[in-house]
Fold this sequence. Notes:
By secondary structure, the chain is of the alpha/beta class. 39% of the residues lie in helices and 16% in strands.
Amino acid sequence: MTDRVFINDVAARDGFQIEARWIETADKIAFIDRLSATGLAKIEATSFTSPKAIPNLADAAEVMQGITRTPNIDYVALIPNIKGVERAIAVSTDELNFVMSASDSHGRANLRMTADESLARFADMVAAANGASVTLNASISTAFGCPFEGPVAAERVLEIVACIADLGISGVTLCDTTGVANPLQVAALCEAVRERHPALNLTLHPHNTRGMGLANALAAWQVGVRHFDAALGGLGGCPYAPGASGNICTEDLVHMFECMGVTTGVDLDGLIAVSETLPELIGHDVPGQVVKAGKADRRYPLPASLA
C-alpha cells in the first residue's frame, strides 16, 4: 500500500437530516458506535442547529454525549452560529464545522445570510471557540455551482478561502452541494487552494447527483487532496438545495482507494456490514454499489454446465 487518505463519514448528520423517518436517539448512537469500529478518521455525528430548521437533529447534545469515543477518531458537528458553538463545546465535540455558501442565493435560502455576512459571523464564532480544545473547519457550500445562480466563479471561492484562512480556521471543505462539478473543475479549484494555502487542511465534499462523485474524488486526489467527506450508503442531500441527492458513498470510496493501493485505515468489510443495516434503520434502500455487488475480488462459481 502507498499513500494515505482520511475519510470523514457524514451519514449521521448529512444523511439523517433529510430522512422522512425520525431515527431514535439510541439508534443514532448505536449507528455511530458501529461506524467508530471501522477505523474512519472522522465522523460527523450531528449538527447543533435550530430544531425548527432541522427537526431530525434535535437530539444533537444527547447523541454527542451518548456515543462511545474511540481514540484517533474526531467526532465532528456542523455549526451554524455562536449558540451552536457553545452547545457543541459543552458536550466535548472534537471539531466544529462551520458552514456557509459561496453563492449568496443559496446562503439566503440555507442560512438567511450572504457569503460576506457568513464570514462576519465566522469571526464571532471563532472568538466564541477561543480557549476551547476544539479544531475549527469551514465548509463552503455551492463551491462548484449553485442551483439558483448557476456557476460560481473560482476566484470568488478563493477569496472566501483566503478570508477563512485569515480568521485562523485550520481547515476548509469545498462542497459540491448539488453535484454539478466535473473532474477538471474539481482538480483546478483544489490545486489552486492548495497552492495558495498550503497550511490549510483541505477536504473535498462531493455529491453523486449526476454520477460524477467518485470521478471528482479521484481528480482531487490526483492533485494532492487527502481528506474526503462521504456518507455510508450514499445518504444525504441539502434540504435547501433543489435536486441535491446523496453524497458519495463511503464504502464505495474506500473500495476505490483500496483497489488503487491507497491506504484508508478503514476496515472495508466492517463498513459494508454497517451499510447493510441502513435500509432497516431508515426504511428504504440506499444507492451504494459495493454493498450490493460485493468487492472487486468477489468470485462466483462456474455455471454447472462448465463445472
